[in-house]
């Protein structure tokens, strides 16, 4: 019985060290070194090999090393093999930090101060109270909820949108397509923390931007294909959107010379908003292995019908 890691090799080396300390009886391999393929019962991957159960005939569980699983071709993982996505404290904390800095950048007018600095202008731009800044998060899952719980502490007016009804203390929760327009109409800073599915692909487009108050800003930390990039550029040009902070693009990396790179109202980071932290993730994976052995539900089990 063995565990195989197939993602970034440097992180794989960290996982291997942690497994050696915490689960010394479970042999651990880092792709492309797989040992005996018949011994592989557990696979943790950013993208599994094309035909995982043919390559590893005794595979029992596939773990995603990321929170999102859109990069998986689920049709290649047979239904009897559960797919488990990453829910672990390190990735949550990283996302809370990233979105908080992005919201404060916008709230405290740092885009405008950057432009003023280029022109050597010393002029105060009062931000107004946090309670009058309306934050809206698309996606009230593990990450969206954690982000809102932190932003609430600053006093921002917080709301969120999900597929099914949710309740989060101090957050005005909206659910379903029918509630989207009202949610957008009250949102000054829109944060995308949705999974990428057929229903959410291309959601951030001109039609959606038109429903936001004029001058609203976007923080995009979901997946690149959620966003229609030409529509974003048009909305920034027209003033319908004020600023955009993009951690994900389509494609990644964003090609050299793309107009988003140099737009004065756009900040880009290279898909680093958050990532799985080996030290905290390995405990969660080992706990899930225990649950699996004991026939208990694993934390982060992907619902194939929903696609996330
Ligand atoms: P969860 O599965 O916990 O939450 C997803 C949320 O989105 C749920 O509230 C769900 O609704 C909602 N949702 C899904 N589909 C729809 C829809 N069609 N309409 C309305 N709401 C919908 O995911 P996480 O919070 O863990 O992660 C969210 C995403 O963040 C990941 O899938 C990934 O794309 C992105 N991510 C980005 C990272 C980065 O570094 N940029 C790092 C990690 C993740 P419901 O509550 O009803 O199920
Ligand atoms: C993830 C990511 O989904 O890093 O975990 O994007």
From TrEMBL:
Source domain of life: Bacteria
InterPro entries reported in the protein's UniProt record: D-isomer_DH_NAD-bd, NAD(P)-bd_dom_sf
Domain D-isomer specific 2-hydroxyacid dehydrogenase NAD-binding: 102-273
MF GO annotations: NAD binding; oxidoreductase activity
Gene3D superfamilies in the record: NAD(P)-binding Rossmann-like Domain
UniProt KW NAD keyword: yes
Key words of the record: NAD, Oxidoreductase, Pyruvate
PANTHER family on file: 2-HACID_DH_C DOMAIN-CONTAINING PROTEIN (PTHR43333), D-ISOMER SPECIFIC 2-HYDROXYACID DEHYDROGENASE NAD-BINDING DOMAIN-CONTAINING PROTEIN (PTHR43333:SF1)
Protein name (record): Glyoxylate/hydroxypyruvate reductase A
């Amino acid at each position: 019985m063995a565990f195989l890691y197939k993602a970034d090799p440097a992180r794989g080396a960290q996982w291997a060290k942690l497994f050696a300390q915490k689960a010394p009886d479970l042999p651990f391999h880092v792709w492309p070194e797989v040992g005996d393929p018949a011994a592989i019962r557990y696979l943790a991957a950013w993208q599994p090999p094309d035909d995982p159960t043919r390559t590893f005939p005794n595979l029992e569980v596939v773990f995603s090393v990321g929170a999102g699983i859109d990069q998986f071709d689920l049709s290649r993982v047979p239904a009897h093999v559960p797919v488990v996505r990453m829910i672990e404290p390190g990735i949550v904390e990283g996302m809370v930090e990233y979105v908080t800095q992005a919201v404060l950048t916008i709230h405290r007018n740092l885009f405008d101060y950057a432009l003023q600095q280029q022109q050597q202008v010393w002029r105060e731009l009062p931000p107004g109270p946090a309670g009058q800044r309306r934050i809206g998060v698309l996606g009230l899952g593990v990450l969206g909820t954690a982000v809102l719980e932190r932003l609430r502490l600053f006093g921002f007016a917080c709301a969120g949108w999900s597929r099914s009804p949710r309740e989060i203390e101090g957050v005005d929760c909206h659910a379903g397509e029918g509630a989207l327009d009202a949610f957008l109409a009250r949102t000054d800073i829109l944060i995308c923390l949705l999974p990428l599915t057929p229903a959410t692909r291309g959601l951030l487009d001109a039609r959606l931007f038109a429903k936001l108050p004029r001058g609203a800003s976007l923080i995009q930390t979901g997946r690149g294909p959620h966003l229609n990039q030409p529509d974003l550029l048009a909305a920034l040009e027209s003033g319908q959107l004020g600023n955009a902070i993009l951690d994900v693009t389509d494609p990644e990396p964003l090609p050299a010379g793309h107009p988003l790179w140099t737009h004065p109202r756009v900040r880009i980071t290279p898909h680093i908003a958050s990532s799985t932290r080996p030290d905290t993730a390995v405990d969660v994976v080992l706990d899930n292995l225990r649950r699996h052995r004991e026939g208990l539900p694993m934390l982060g089990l992907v619902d194939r019908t929903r696609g996330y």
